[in-house]
Recover the amino acids of this structure.
């Protein structure tokens, strides 16, 4: 269990705060807007009204207790940068910041923070991938053009064998795992019969996955 | 190769548009702001200035050509809903919409769209997970408390064997894959030596991953 501070309780900041609490940590939420603090005071470990661009006001918070500080101030780049600068001056070691533009990102990297986050861009890319491969529920890009993909078997492929689905790729694509309800299967044979709602994990290149797409539809 | 229409070219909408083009598709971008259209006219297949709440204006666009329409209008919930309604009236079958609030989400599901996206919340949850498990680079939640995690081996674990790292979990946790540069290894033995920058994919429960965390630090 660790303690975190989240500055700026917009949708991104509060989603991160509530998930951290759900994961068993404690969170101090900071926002300059008292209405926002009132809204979340019951859900957070601690909720503080504070203008986080004011280094003296921030000094009151005990950052030494926090494993990391998340700056989730959105639209106001100036506030986000002033807050980040104040945290650096106070010696905070682990600062993650939400950036709104490329310029914002560049300035933050010059200030030296540990992670810069672009929620809209990251989800934009994921949505494009989901539109591109509708049969892929989720995926991990591994680099060098390799992807681990999570496929949910549809009714149309119920009782197809793994060999049937993989076709020419049987030898090259890696079948990592199959989850059926709570059961896990590894080292699947070519005649293994797939059932609808099975979750199949494969690892392959983009072109291999393209070949598979119609075979899973 | 397919055609998509993206309405609203904010950060989310344009990120999705550019990724779709990068993936080999064509995209018609629509925005009511001529400055935005001017900015992206070179990057998109087609860029149209249009107030998408106006069904008559939308009718001019040939949606039959689009595999899906993404409504990426952000802050203005009214415009997002009116645009979605107009698309439904025009018979568009595959509508994905970015939602800003729970209320927005509820109204969209009543209208009946194929996917509702909450970028800030989704990334907020991911960031919390990343803060919680700093050694996990990326992950896939599989349901029933099972996760596939992508771990990047650090310098500190260079030449540790897989058996050493997994400890008591050797028998229960599933080792799916190891990627070393462009090479993939499956069915790893207990004495397999890990190298820094190896990418290791494991599947286990949250408590198993918690046990592993300090062993990978
Ligand atoms: N100087 C500041 N100190 C503390 N809180 C601040 C400061 N400036 C802005 N905030 C708070 O940050 C929160 C998020 O900012 P804002 O709403 O501008 O971002 P956003 O990008 O719309 O958020 P999201 O997209 O995450 O919903 C707001 O609740 C706001 O009150
Ligand atoms: N009725 C409309 N028709 C067409 N485009 C619209 C309409 N209303 C808003 N837009 C456009 O949608 C785009 C995105 O909207 P907005 O900037 O409000 O969202 P945002 O949430 O800030 O975006 P993001 O977070 O994705 O950057 C803007 O470029 C805006 O001009």
């Amino acid at each position: 269990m660790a303690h975190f501070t989240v500055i700026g309780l917009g949708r991104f900041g509060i989603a991160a705060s509530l998930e951290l609490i759900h994961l068993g940590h404690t969170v101090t939420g900071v926002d300059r807007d008292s209405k926002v603090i009132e809204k979340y005071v019951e859900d957070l470990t601690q909720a503080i009204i504070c203008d986080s661009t004011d280094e003296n006001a921030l000094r009151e918070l005990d950052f030494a207790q926090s494993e990391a500080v998340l700056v989730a101030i959105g639209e106001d780049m100036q506030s986000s940068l002033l807050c980040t600068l104040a945290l650096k001056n106070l010696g905070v070691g682990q600062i993650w910041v939400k950036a709104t533009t490329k310029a914002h990102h560049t300035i933050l990297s010059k200030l030296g923070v540990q992670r810069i986050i672009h929620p809209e861009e990251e989800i934009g890319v994921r949505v494009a991938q989901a539109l591109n491969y509708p049969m892929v529920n989720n995926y991990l890009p591994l680099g060098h053009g390799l992807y681990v993909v999570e496929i949910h078997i549809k009714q149309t492929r119920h009782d197809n064998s793994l060999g049937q689905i993989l076709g020419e790729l049987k030898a090259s694509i890696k079948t990592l795992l199959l989850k059926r309800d709570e059961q896990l299967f590894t080292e699947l044979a070519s005649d293994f019969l797939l059932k609808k709602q099975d979750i199949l994990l494969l690892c392959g290149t983009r072109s291999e996955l393209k070949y598979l797409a119609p075979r899973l539809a």
